[in-house]
Design brief:
Elements: H1 4-13, H2 38-43, H3 45-56, E1 59-64, E2 67-72, H4 75-83, H5 91-99, H6 112-123, H7 128-147
Antiparallel strand pairs: 1-2
Length: about 160
């Protein structure tokens, strides 16, 4: 049986590695050959986004982490994306290729009604009184464990 990490690596190996012509009409650029804007993406993501908005406007594309990335910015774009009234956006399609083997049918890998139903089931576990009860249960255990840590030694 293969581990989730090796399965993930196999899945990642099947991803397209070159620019997708289906998004080439969107303003933007591919960046350096092979790596695109990966280094900028990892080193200074806000700066990369600011530079792209200044150059290409509030909707643009670029390549990072060996895939095409489309970014929409601004309050109207956020409302459009988050409300998704017409159901244009799929969390499942976006994340399945990376997370499906680690979190099969996880909440983040569900769309529309299925996501809504499962989110409602889980919602109670994240209310403030419940979260406080978790902390109250965990804190004594943390204190006990920390008290047993070796003293006078660097980790």
């Amino acid at each position: 049986m293969s581990s989730p990490v090796s399965s993930l690596a196999k899945t990642a190996a099947t991803l397209p590695r070159k620019p997708n012509p289906a998004v080439s009409h969107i303003p933007g650029e591919n960046g350096r050959p092979v790596v695109g804007f990966t280094f900028e993406f990892l080193r200074d993501f806000p700066g990369l986004i600011d530079r792209m908005v200044a150059k290409h406007g509030p909707v643009f594309r670029y390549r990072a982490l060996m895939q095409d990335v489309i970014t929409i910015t601004g309050p109207d774009a956020n409302e459009f994306l988050l409300k998704d009234v017409d159901r244009y956006f799929s969390s499942k399609k976006a994340w399945d290729v990376i997370l499906e083997e680690l979190f099969p049918n996880g909440l983040m890998l569900r769309d529309f009604e299925s996501h809504k139903v499962h989110r409602k089931i889980l919602q109670g576990a994240f209310k403030k009184p419940v979260m406080q009860a978790y902390v109250d249960t965990m804190n004594p255990r943390f204190a006990e464990s920390i008290a047993r840590w070796p003293k006078g030694r660097e980790l």
